């Protein structure tokens, strides 16, 4: 009986050791990959904004980071906050579940405006809005139209014709949304909110046009 037990349990023990080694290697690989994603995203953010002061904070182990960028002077934007939430690549057991829930890494950017924009407006991808996306609080008092931006369907909400025209002009100058999934201009709060999927090499490419555009909206 004892001999048979040894024969049965030895392969299981070796399998357990192998499985543990795989999870350990996955943990270190996932940490490195998440660090690469967040450093690339925040590096692009700094390149676009060129802040006078910056602070970076870890808010969730290896899956969450926050950036606070301050801009001096009299320009239209005074401060930028950014939060990136990452898939748990370091946890291969939980990764499939998180992939179903989150789908992808997420980058939330808030621009603090020194002056009030000419009305509220939202440009939001319909799939993002439909799957655990944000609820537009003032949607009932905003006009809405559906537009095709690149290969994606978006909804355009606007309070004034001026903001409607500003957004259409932006789309004309940038025919592909890239990793952009939501742009929100909230006039009462003097803020612009941006949601992007932080893919390496694309944050700067897709954020820079928005940054220039929102500055022109405020200055005009």
Write up what this structure looks like:
With 220 residues, the chain is an alpha+beta fold. The protein is built from 5 helices and 9 strands. The protein has a 9-stranded antiparallel beta sheet with strand order 1-2-3-4-9-8-5-7-6. The longest helix has 48 residues, at 2-49. The N and C termini lie far apart (86 Å).
Order of helices and strands: HEEEHEEHEEHEEH
Mass-distribution shape: globular
> Beta-strand level of the residues, as a percent range?
25-35%
Runs in which pLDDT lies below 50 for 5 or more consecutive residues are: none
> Structural class, please?
alpha+beta
Structural Rg = 22 Å
Keywords, separated by commas or semicolons:
220 residues, alpha+beta, 9-stranded antiparallel beta sheet, 28% strand
Give a brief outline of the structure.
The protein is of the alpha+beta class.
Write the layout of secondary structure elements.
Elements lengths: L1 H48 L3 E6 L5 E7 L6 E9 L9 H8 L3 E8 L7 E5 H5 L12 E7 L2 E7 L2 H13 L6 E7 L4 E6 L6 H17 L1
Antiparallel strand pairs: 1-2, 2-3, 3-4, 4-9, 5-7, 5-8, 6-7, 8-9
Helix pairs in contact: 1-5
């Amino acid at each position: 009986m004892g001999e048979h037990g040894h024969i049965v349990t030895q392969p299981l023990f070796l399998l357990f050791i192998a499985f543990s080694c795989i999870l350990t290697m996955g943990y270190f690989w996932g940490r490195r990959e998440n660090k690469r994603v967040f450093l690339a995203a925040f590096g692009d953010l700094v390149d676009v904004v060129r802040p006078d002061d910056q602070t970076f904070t870890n808010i969730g182990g290896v899956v969450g980071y926050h950036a606070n960028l301050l801009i001096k002077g009299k320009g239209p934007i005074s401060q930028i906050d950014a939060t990136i939430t990452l898939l748990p690549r370091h946890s291969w057991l939980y990764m499939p579940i998180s992939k179903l829930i989150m789908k992808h890494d997420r980058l939330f950017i808030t621009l603090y405006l020194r002056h009030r924009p000419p009305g509220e407006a939202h440009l939001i991808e319909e799939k993002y809005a439909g799957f655990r996306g944000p609820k537009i609080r003032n949607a009932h008092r905003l006009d809405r139209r559906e537009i095709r931006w690149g290969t994606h369907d978006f909804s355009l909400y606007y309070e004034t014709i001026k903001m409607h025209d500003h957004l259409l002009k932006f789309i004309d100058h940038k025919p592909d949304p890239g990793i952009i999934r939501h742009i929100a201009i909230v006039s009462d709060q003097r803020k612009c909110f941006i949601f992007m999927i932080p893919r390496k090499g694309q944050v700067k490419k897709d954020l820079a046009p928005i940054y220039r555009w929102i500055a022109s909206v405020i200055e005009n």
